[in-house]
Amino acid sequence: MSQLEYLIVLVSILVGLGLADLTESLRDLVLPERNVRWDGLPVAWAVIVVGYVLAAWWTFYDLLQSAVWHRPLTFLPVLLTTLALYLLCAFALPDADREDVSYVTTDARGTKTVDLETFYLSSTHRRWFFGTAAIFSLLFIGTVNAGMVYDGDRAPQMGIRQTLFALPILPIPALILVATRHRWVHWGLTLYSMGWVVYLLSDVANALTGGG
């Protein structure tokens, strides 16, 4: 087994665990016996997270071809980015079988309801999910730029500038969502983030097919 294959296995396991957690949460929500008060925001962010997974997976496959990442210290940014991606998958949707949480209510007949709006807008969810989203996006962008600098595709100064330029594009909007409960702000930045994911996926696809 080559070093590339060895590292790809670890990344694959973490990404697979994250997707498994996300799909398990979705499965539990759509079970016929589950009473759910649906909301579009957490569902939209679950879709965005899947887009992040696709973009990171194919980007890291190409990135790890370079030998610079085949050392423990230099592989650490890739590992931390993958761990943040796993946590994003885990935090995107609630655990429907929990009872000691604010988003699960019980009526007089004993019927339990999972309220996705309450879950999404709770301070705990916003802090952990969007805080992780900010960390993931910063790590992802910084790691990709570092790889381009090492391969000679980008000057070091340009790599730093590109990373700093990305702060108001992805990490800062995520931090804004940590700080506010206003639904119109969340919907605006959710659609904005979805647009960036579509752009990112199209950019990755273009790079993989050798166009541009």
Describe it.
It is a single chain. By secondary structure, the chain is mainly α. The chain contains eight helices and three strands. A hairpin with a 5-residue loop joins strand 2 (104-106) and strand 3. Helix 1 (3-30) runs antiparallel to helix 2, helix 1 runs parallel beside helix 3 and helix 5 (123-150) runs antiparallel to helix 6 (156-165). It is globular and about 65 Å long. 28% of the residues are buried.
Q: Strand arrangement, largest sheet?
A: 1-3-2
Q: Percentage of helical residues? A: over 70%
Distance between the termini: 32 Å
Structural category is: mainly alpha
Measured by DSSP, the beta-strand proportion falls in under 5%
Which regions have little confidence, pLDDT < 50, spanning 5+ residues? Answer: none
The SSE string, one letter per element, is HEHHEEHHHHH
Please tally the β strands and state the result. Answer: 3
Gyration radius over CA:
19 Å
The averaged pLDDT comes out at: 87
What would the principal axes of the Cα set say about the shape?
Answer: globular
Largest sheet: 3 strands, mixed
Number of helices: 8
